Amino acid sequence: MRFGFSTAGESHGPGEVTLVHGVPAGLGLLAEDVDRDLARRQQGYGRGGRQKIEKDKVEFLGGVRHGYTLGSPVAMLVRNRDYANWEHRMSPAPVEDPPDPITLPRPGHADLAGMQKYAFDDLRNVLERSSARETTARVAAGGVAKKLLSDFGVEIHSAVYRIGTVAYPKERAVVDAARADESEVRCPDPEVSERMKEEIDAARYARDALGGEFVVVAHGCPPGLGSYVDWRDKVDARLAAAILSINAMKGVEFGMGFGLAAKRSSEVQDEILAENGHLARASNRLGGIEGGMTNGEPVVVSAAMKPISTIAKQLRTVDISTGEETKAFKERADSCAVPAAAVIGESMVAVVLAEAFLEKFGADNMTDIRAAHDSYARRLAEAGVAAR
């Protein structure tokens, strides 16, 4: 089975469940390999009260024994501590006194379309699964993918370069992404970070929320992940789909992204050079991907996130039970979730790259994968086409 994952669980249910398929046997994997990013996802200036309740830790339920994967699906659970406060409202079993249905859909959320699609009369049935709490399970899957890739020298970082109107040059964020965790907003520049925090404070005071932009950078990817042969194999298309599947994402770019459209071709292409008998690139404007394949340069993916839909300033809506105009339902939420979204972006990029990596080098066990990877690297080096 191809490397990938599925998730289950509701925001205020007992927990978030992740099932990772296609994990090769023999990968060293500990809980801390996953917990590290679970903790990073919960951090960030502008987060709401939920992060003070949850202390996300993973429990392996299957697929790992004595610190190594077995080749079977890796099953993980992250318990929701807040479930203790919601047990009656989220009980899987029928209750004698069910809570009143929520019928005030929030603009920008999945509420209304979800109620219409699934014939629900209570938007609680929609918001519990469409909540960004689900991304906890994605980050758990990303932890497995990151561990696999790191064994072959692939490292993934992210940085926030815009929150609201405050911005940091994206090209500098790409270079400095490894330092982003030093900032509460995950921006590598201290002065810009403070201005971003002021922007978040102003939005919170106005009972509003902010979006922004972040970049994910993957160093060490070998050339040839993905393929030009079939549209479904193009790694940039797969990365774009993965990023846009994250809550509130509205745009994705590679390298210079939309800025390339205003340039001439001679200003855009990453020229090929000969350096000490090997091929190299004069630039990385295309973000490490050509023809649907990695080219050996860092993979650079950036995303635009809209402000989250749940805010204290209730917007206009219609009560689905009465047809009357009113104000939208309000749930506890963040003022800004862009720093957390960047960590989730890392996880989704890792999952796609791990899938493409195992397609290229095999997927049964780490011994055979490493042999295939090393053989490929030797072939490129001997032919004089090793990546820089």
Automatic annotation (TrEMBL):
Organism per entry: Rubrobacter tropicus
Descriptive protein name:
Chorismate synthase
Q: Name one GO cellular component term.
A: cytosol
Query: At which positions is FMN bound?
Result: 129-131, 247-248, 291, 306-310, 332
The record's Gene Ontology biological-process terms are: amino acid biosynthetic process; aromatic amino acid family biosynthetic process; chorismate biosynthetic process
Q: How is the cofactor bound?
A: Reduced FMN (FMNH(2)).
Key words, A-Z: Amino-acid biosynthesis, Aromatic amino acid biosynthesis, FAD, Flavoprotein, FMN, Lyase, NADP
Q: What does this protein do?
A: This reaction introduces a second double bond into the aromatic ring system.
Cofactors: FMNH2
Listed GO MF terms: chorismate synthase activity; FMN binding
The EC code for this enzyme is 4.2.3.5
Q: Where does NADP(+) bind?
A: 41, 47
> Which pathway, metabolic or otherwise, does it act in?
Metabolic intermediate biosynthesis; chorismate biosynthesis; chorismate from D-erythrose 4-phosphate and phosphoenolpyruvate: step 7/7
The record's annotation in InterPro entries points to: Chorismate_synth, Chorismate_synth_AroC_sf
Source organism's superkingdom? Bacteria
Q: Which SUPFAM superfamilies match?
A: Chorismate synthase, AroC
Q: What class of enzyme is it?
A: lyase
Catalytic activity of the protein = 5-O-(1-carboxyvinyl)-3-phosphoshikimate = chorismate + phosphate
Query: What do we know about how this protein assembles, alone or with others?
Result: Homotetramer.
Q: Which family does it belong to?
A: Belongs to the chorismate synthase family.
